[in-house]
Design brief:
Two copies of one chain form a homodimer.
Chain A: H1 2-25, H2 55-65, E1 86-88, E2 94-97, H3 100-103, H4 112-117, H5 121-128, H6 141-149, E3 158-162, H7 165-185, H8 193-198, E4 211-215, H9 224-229, H10 234-237, E5 247-248, H11 261-284, E6 289-294, E7 297-298, E8 304-305, H12 308-320, E9 324-328, E10 354-357, E11 364-368, H13 388-403, H14 406-427, E12 433-438, E13 441-445, H15 449-461, E14 464-465, E15 467-469, E16 473-476, H16 484-502
Parallel strand pairs in A: 2-14, 4-5, 4-6, 6-9, 9-10
Antiparallel strand pairs in A: 1-2, 3-11, 7-8, 10-11, 12-13, 13-16, 15-16
Helix pairs in contact in A: 5-13, 6-13, 11-12, 14-16, 15-16
Family (chains A, B): Belongs to the class-III pyridoxal-phosphate-dependent aminotransferase family.
GO cellular component, one term (chains A, B): mitochondrion
EC number (chains A, B): 2.6.1.19, 2.6.1.22
């Protein structure tokens, strides 16, 4: 325990210095706090002390560049001085972080309960004795899976942990293929000898030309199978071999939604029809479509939302064609949309067959129905199959989420953000468009990619770390301890940045 | 720190009870300790208190089976009572572990220095603030990479961390494809617009039909790209789509090696020739072979060894065909063979282009030469890109390895094991064959898979956890704190088990 308090003291000490600097240097107006911070001791505002990346970050980039590529590094972080919604860099800047390590921090930085959990005896045991979970699990593993993962969704009865999002999706696809081939063969027995032999040469029938349908602009990961279903940006895919798998359009709505109800409904119909056509075309060609995978809100591909009716329609199509209906909640899961899982907004007729997760859930993995449990050991397997240290951490996260009502907080703050963004859009016509969100999973568009990139740079100079997505969108991916007062700082910085961008 | 000592106390208390049981119940003769244990307080012998899995493990299996498949679970572990080379289960059994979580524990269970490192302030920060390493690394990340990863191999200048072995290999293949296509285009510029557009539909030229050569019996992982190069067992591959990539035979030697030098040299020649033929055939068909991947010793596929000359020959072929020469050291790395990396035994003419690692290294990742650094940001990228908590743990492992001379220990104990196994083989002709090893990376064959499986069960009933591989092999994968006295217990148990198996 001593270590945890020590760390907390270091964090607080660092931040006192920052707050002093904040009073001296921040260009932002002081905001009245509406509620107490969910993370005690958090700064009140960002501090911008240098250009970002500052001189120390630039020095470290040169150093790191000796041993790996650094083209994607934004700045170097001082994690000991980061707290709650604020990330501190090595140059004395303390920034409001609405991107939170690509949407992967559930409780922001150095949450006191995670610091405490990091020193529990069971965490120590898990981290120094990482097991091969598929063969030698810890005595408390079933109980830990239940308390961290099985409290929601109630209607999905199985869970398989994995190390990361890509790996979770890859293994979920494998589960689809196994079930689909068993059905084609009409048997749960092990495949015939011809299949077992031909698969060793990567040839049919053992290596069948089964496929997975994904959607334009989708992002499902970066390993070769998951990358085949990713269709977000050329830089992710070009020069990498891919499988010939079908694609269908994801609805592209006109905004504001209430003014384009008929058009958007027609867009749903068009996309559903195209999805079914793609499935039928591939099935006719013997490239059987074993499943479809879709994000509830496409994130990397541009924060594209679709209606409950669209998802309901897909579920019907999947059933009709005896395919798996899989939802990839790697970015949308863990409460940010105002429900634990974004797909719970869709009023589906029964659970999806598979739901994958990672990022804020800290462990990768996927839920599935009984049907998608593999019919023999070692068909879905690897050395680690996840990491119990991450599941223990998640258990604490879930407990904090319940105690502090963080899902409700995301719904409330999200509504506050949307109101603020719509107000800004009205005051600055022609700059912000397509304002959209569920909970704090909020995005808006700039007129061009160039203006979007410029706005992000100006926001950073004002002490806000944000993320882009799609062609010209900014996405907000704050942690679950993001509150109204943080939203107000963000909105203030945005309006001020837009004024600079707009030239007034 | 308090937590660490607390945990150590719990471990010791549990083990005192076990040692008492050991004296009462062990069927094994007491072994004289030749040297002090590298992990203080470790038991002196295994304890077998129940059938394995015992009643508590069986109860837990039923419980876990409610939420996930348990067909591969061997027993449930009591990690608090495991120490050094001994794993304790929930039924009071304390077993000598020569399989160590599928070869993934570098220092056995609850090593005191890892317990201490688990409570350092920097470990706490890393574990509660897991960064997106490609964008927001910690200030000390370059230094940590150097001390944990860059001290060896000295001739490979770049390192990229990843979450697991499959993911490391997948990304290494991507690095190969990027470099190969750049060379084909004769440019380091971003690919032309036609490539960028066609890749979004998974079609050439943007999604090229590039390939990776792998070898019969190879194991490189379970995600779709790495699984395409895996050729170990049908259960890993059947029903999962694969890419059409080339394969070549891995040498299958006759043992003892010194009696079959000419035959084995001819086998090398045959396999090298077939590898080059496969490359030329695929290149002619426009399925350009961008690289080859090979294990220094094939592990999962049967602990197949090949000569330095074979690997030297492969490196020449790779150079001639302008392909990447990649060594997969996921299982062979981290000192077990008596060198830090098994390929250091091969006298290669310069470094391999890529070397991947995971398991005992605790973090996944790969080393590469400057040439394989991606030519633009975000081409090799994902959210986490590894986990600094694992790198901090590895830093401590490396420090212990140096302090306790664990690589030298592996060489010494390996030689002792080989002598012991050869003695047993002489005393029991017709039972053990193909005894082979480098360091403690040792294996031997039984006459049939059935006898191998039976021997493993008998060994377990005598308090030894071992692993099988290939058709009829037993592989030893102890941790680096496995010493001569542990080898003697193993050899005693083996000889006694063979006596049961042989019926005398």
């Amino acid at each position: 325990m001593k270590g945890a308090f020590l760390t907390s003291r270091v964090v607080r000490k660092g931040l006192q210095a920052s707050t002093l600097q904040a009073r001296q240097r921040s260009s932002l107006p002081e905001q009245a706090h509406q509620t107490a911070s969910l993370v005690q001791g958090e700064p009140n505002y960002p501090v911008v002390a240098t250009a970002i990346p500052g001189p120390k970050s630039q020095e470290l980039m040169k150093d790191l560049n000796d041993i790996q590529a650094v083209g994607s590094v934004q700045f170097f972080v001082d994690y000991a001085r980061s707290l709650g919604n604020y990330v501190a860099d090595v140059d004395g800047n303390v920034l409001l972080d609405v991107y939170t390590q690509i949407a992967s921090l559930p409780l922001g930085y150095n949450h006191p309960r995670l610091l405490r959990a990091a020193h529990s005896p069971e965490m120590t045991l898990a981290s120094v004795n990482r097991p091969a979970l598929g063969s030698f699990p810890d005595a408390r593993w079933p109980q830990k899976l239940r308390s961290a993962l099985m409290w929601l969704p109630r209607d999905m009865t199985n869970v398989q942990t994995m190390a990361c999002g890509s790996c979770s999706n890859e293994n979920a696809y494998k589960a689809m293929f196994i079930v689909y081939r068993n059905r084609q063969r009409g048997s749960e027995d092990l495949p015939p000898i011809e299949d077992q032999q031909s698969c060793m040469l990567n040839r049919a029938p053992g290596s069948p030309s089964l496929t997975v349908l994904s959607f334009e602009h989708a992002f499902h990961g970066r390993t070769l199978g998951s990358l085949t279903t990713t269709r977000s940006k050329p830089i992710h895919k070009v020069d990498i071999p891919a499988l010939d798998w079908p694609v269908a359009p994801f609805p592209m709505y006109q905004y504001p939604l209430d003014q384009f109800a008929a058009e958007n409904s027609a867009e749903d119909e068009r996309c559903l029809q195209r999805a079914e056509e793609a499935i039928e075309e591939y099935n006719r060609a013997g490239k059987w479509v074993a499943g479809m995978v879709i994000e509830p809100i496409q994130a990397e591909g541009g924060d594209n939302h679709a209606s409950p009716e669209f998802f309901q329609g897909l579920q019907k199509i999947a059933r009709k064609h005896q395919m798996a209906f899989m939802i990839d909640e790697v970015q949308t899961g863990c409460g940010v949309t105002g429900k634990m899982w974004a797909h719970q907004w869709f009023g589906l007729d029964g659970p999806p067959d598979i739901v994958s997760f990672s990022k804020k859930m800290l462990t990768g993995g996927y839920y599935h129905t009984d049907k998608y449990r593999p019919n023999a050991p070692y068909r879905i397997y690897n050395t680690w199959m996840g990491d119990p240290a991450k599941v223990l951490q998640l258990e604490e996260v879930i407990s904090v989420m319940k105690d502090d009502k963080l899902i409700e907080n995301a719904a409330d703050v999200g509504a506050h953000l949307m109101t603020g963004l719509n107000g800004i859009a009205e005051r600055r016509p022609g700059l912000l468009s397509r304002i959209r969100g569920l909970g704090t999973f909020v995005a808006f568009d700039l007129p061009s990619g160039g203006q979007r990139d410029k706005l992000m740079a100006v926001l950073r100079s004002k002490g806000v770390v944000s993320g882009g997505c799609g062609d010209a969108s900014i996405r907000m991916r704050p942690s679950l301890v993001f509150q109204r007062q943080h939203a107000d700082i963000y909105l203030g910085a945005l309006e001020s940045a837009l004024a600079e961008l707009g030239g007034d």
